[in-house]
Each structure stands twice: as structure tokens, then as C-alpha cells.
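Protocol step 4 of 6: structure prediction from sequence.
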Amino acid sequence: MSGIGLSTYAFFWQHHELAPARLDLAGMLDRTAEAGVGLFQICDYPQVEQLDESGLAAIKARADDLGITLELGTKGVSVQHLARYRSLAGALGASVVRSMVYSPTERPTLAEAQFSIETELGAWEAEGLTLALETYEQVSSTDLVSLVETVGRDSFGICLDPANTVAALENPRDVIDRTAPYVKNIHVKDFQFTRRGGWVGFTLEGAQLGTGLLDYDHLIATVRPAERGISQVIEHWLPLGASIEETIAEENTWNTHNLQYLRSKS
């Protein structure tokens, strides 16, 4: 699957428990279609695991009716967890699943992660699924690339998010260059450092695309997502503002801006 997409992270504050009228998954799909977007990633959204067969079928039917292709996102690589998300992906018609080496409850070694992935990957390939592990601060991009190279299967690669790696003092441009051959999915968000009150330290937070430190031009020139059929999924690091209502309004503004920005670069 390729193209520009939105995700549950693009509506983070609108489905947050603080939201006065929480947006559910069907509502996010509707909003995605209204924005003229044909791809949506259900990412780190535990509610999807609670849906029964009819609930999953209803979400897939709604996405199909709206002309939206689905992707999935989760955390963890245990055999049981990967098997669960393989089943969910099949029910939703998703061909790409993003995950992370660590889950909230498990921190496997790279060797343990390799064993789990290799145990499950044959079944994923039989169903036409791709597993993409995200770049983030808890596992270095060098270790992540090493894991992908060791497994050595085309159905297994990397979800590139250069912003995450800053927290481990990895240069985002270096991460792009290192991971480019193995990228299967991209999370697109810009970021910036701002001075904290009293100029005591910095805060790393989100920014609208094109206004922060993400070298997006280098990313697309190096990874070549359109040429390789790699989807680009919009996310945000939008901090809570003075009120949840103002934050939701800002989130919608960011979605509009970021979609326009990516489309202008296509």
C-alpha cells in the first residue's frame, strides 16, 4: 500500500478521555474520508483488540464504503501478540502492521525478538502481510537494522519515524540514511526544541510539517516512498493547550496543514 494517510495519532486529542465528545473509530474513518484521504492506520488503539468478529467486519465494511485502506499499529513482538495482530489484520484487510520491539509489559532481547518474528513470519507471508518495526529511542536504529538484516525477509522491515530517535541522541538524517533500504512504512511528524520557562532546559515537541527540524525533502529523496509504494502516515506531537477544546481545534488545523504540505511535495 502506498500514499498519504492519517492515523489514530492524528486524532489523538479527539478520541482522548478529556474530549467532550470522544471520536470513535468510525468517526475517525469518516473524518479521514472527508479530508480526501484513502488510508488510515489504527495505531496503538487498544479498543480494536476488544472488537469481536462482527465489530471488525463493521469497521472493515465502513472503511470499504469510504474507499479507505486500513493499516494497523501496535507494540510488542511476542509470538502470541504477533499472531493476534495477524488475525486482526486479516479481518480488517490490512496488509501493513507497524510494531515496536518493546511492549508496555515485555522487553525482549534482540535475540528473543528475532526468534518470535521468525516463528510468525511464515504465516504473515502466507497472508500477504508486512511487519514494520518503528525507529524509536528505546532501540537504536543500528540494532533495528541489524535485526532486519539478520531475519533477511522482504516481509519484515522498518517503520521510519526520525523524530523519535532524537531522544536517544541519534541524528534524524543519519537514521533516515541508515534505515532507507528497509523502510516499509513512514510516520511523518515534524518536531522542534523550545526553551522551557526561565530558559531552564528544552522541551522536544511537535510542529506543523515544514516548520520544524524534520528534513522531509531529504527523507523522500532518500527513501523514495512513491516509487517504492511506501505509505506515509501523518502523526502529531501536539501538546495539550489551555483547554481541550482549543487543542482539538489546533489538531484539526495541523491535520489540514500537514495534508496540504505532503500533497504539495507529491
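Step 5 (inspection) to follow. The two ends are 16 Å apart (CA to CA).
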